[in-house]
UniProtKB/TrEMBL annotation:
The keyword Transmembrane helix applies. Keywords: Membrane, Repeat, TPR repeat, Transmembrane, Transmembrane helix. This is Tetratricopeptide repeat protein. The chain crosses the membrane at residues 28-46. InterPro entries: CellSynth/LPSAsmb/PSIAsmb (IPR051012), TPR-like_helical_dom_sf (IPR011990), TPR_rpt (IPR019734). TPR repeats lie at residues 91-124. SMART domains: TPR (SM00028). PANTHER family: LIPOPOLYSACCHARIDE ASSEMBLY PROTEIN B, TPR REPEAT-CONTAINING PROTEIN PA4667. The keyword Cell inner membrane does not apply. Gene3D superfamilies: Tetratricopeptide repeat domain.
Length: 254
């Protein structure tokens, strides 16, 4: 019996530390202590396991969450494309090789062929977008933004709004708050990207526009009410963060 109490105590300490890092509602602390050890288990399943680790930076597109691969291991596809480049040296083949590396998360390897493709044929939109994604994945946000700016000028709806959203992210992550605000505003005027709402609100708050930030967070939460279950689960992290922001500012929503 003592071993179970010991293990429960370890779990409780672990969950309390997680509660501190996440700045969760104080009700969870009460539950964990008064319903020991069931409360700690409930916190683990309903909070910790459902949200990203607070120590992990949020805001990156999903396909950039994995660490980049830098070691080149040729596959049949890359060998075929390299052979085509050797024989015909067409911009399209450089583009396809770069996009293949991008898909494999070999961002450093993706950049040279994509640059070559764009230099020789500026109309290769997929190569431009792939180059921007590669720069973004390597945290070269200014270079990514320069490419995305040109893409968005031609088509603001490129990749269903992900291009202009990526541009807003690049501005924010490079510290250009003024441009980030304008870009996020353009995003939320046309798309329901909850992450865009959240970071737009934080930037408003940072500039002293507290009420506008609060209204934006409320709008985010309000928009979540009619989401289907699969979409709600996908956006849950940003919804919970919006609730935390409001509670921090003395606002409790039902």
């Amino acid at each position: 019996m003592n071993i179970f109490i010991f293990l429960g105590a370890i779990l409780l300490i672990w969950m309390v530390w997680d509660w501190i890092k996440r700045k969760e509602h104080f009700v969870w602390l009460i539950i964990m202590f008064f319903l020991f050890p069931v409360g700690a288990l409930a916190y683990f399943f309903f909070v910790k396991s459902r949200a990203p680790d607070p120590a992990t930076p949020s805001g990156s597109p999903g396909f950039f969450n994995n660490p980049p691969q830098t070691k080149e291991i040729d596959t049949q596809e890359t060998l075929q494309l390299k052979d085509m480049i050797g024989k015909f040296n067409k911009p399209y083949h450089h583009q396809e090789l770069g996009l293949l590396y991008l898909e494999e998360k070999k961002y450093e390897l993706a950049i040279p062929p994509l640059k070559e493709a764009v230099t020789r044929d500026p109309d290769l939109i997929d190569a431009q977008y792939g180059l921007a994604k590669s720069f973004y994945a390597l945290q070269r946000y200014t270079e990514a933004a320069e490419i995305l700016e040109e893409l968005v000028k031609v088509n603001k709806k490129h990749d269903y709004g992900n291009a202009i959203f990526g541009l807003a992210e690049c501005y924010r992550l490079s510290g250009d708050d003024e441009k980030a605000l304008k870009a996020y505003e353009a995003v939320i005027n046309s798309y329901h990207f909850f992450k865009a709402y959240y970071h737009y609100a934080l930037l408003l708050d940072k500039r002293g526009k507290k009420q506008e930030a609060i209204d934006t967070m409320k709008s985010l939460i309000g928009s979540s009410k009619d989401l289907p279950d699969y979409k709600l689960e996908k956006e849950r992290h940003w919804i919970e963060e919006a609730y935390k922001f409001l509670r921090k500012n003395g606002i409790e929503l039902a």
